[in-house]
Amino acid sequence: MARGKSFEDNLKEIDNLINEIENNENLSLDESIKKYEKAMKLIQNCSQILEKSEGKVLKIKEENGKLIFSEFKKGE
């Protein structure tokens, strides 16, 4: 798993791994477990990307015809 993969690339790979596990009748238990473990690592990577992005998200609102940008805070 490359560290430079985008969030979207990780999601596509997770989806592919899940489809392989669910739809490949010839997949051994060991192969299924390896694919599951890889998917879990990708999910962790997605979670880290989301956490890093959370602080960058801006809340945009309009007041008196002007756009106001402020930092997004959890729970808002």
UniProtKB/TrEMBL annotation:
<dbReference type="InterPro" id="IPR037004">
    <property type="entry name" value="Exonuc_VII_ssu_sf"/>
</dbReference>
<protein>
    <recommendedName>
        <fullName>Exodeoxyribonuclease 7 small subunit</fullName>
        <ecNumber>3.1.11.6</ecNumber>
    </recommendedName>
</protein>
<dbReference type="InterPro" id="IPR003761">
    <property type="entry name" value="Exonuc_VII_S"/>
</dbReference>
<comment type="similarity">
    <text>Belongs to the XseB family.</text>
</comment>
<keyword id="KW-0269">Exonuclease</keyword>
<comment type="function">
    <text>Bidirectionally degrades single-stranded DNA into large acid-insoluble oligonucleotides, which are then degraded further into small acid-soluble oligonucleotides.</text>
</comment>
<keyword id="KW-0540">Nuclease</keyword>
<dbReference type="GO" id="GO:0009318">
    <property type="term" value="C:exodeoxyribonuclease VII complex"/>
</dbReference>
<dbReference type="GO" id="GO:0006308">
    <property type="term" value="P:DNA catabolic process"/>
</dbReference>
<dbReference type="GO" id="GO:0008855">
    <property type="term" value="F:exodeoxyribonuclease VII activity"/>
</dbReference>
<keyword id="KW-0963">Cytoplasm</keyword>
<dbReference type="Pfam" id="PF02609">
    <property type="entry name" value="Exonuc_VII_S"/>
</dbReference>
<dbReference type="GO" id="GO:0005829">
    <property type="term" value="C:cytosol"/>
</dbReference>
<comment type="subunit">
    <text>Heterooligomer composed of large and small subunits.</text>
</comment>
<keyword id="KW-0378">Hydrolase</keyword>
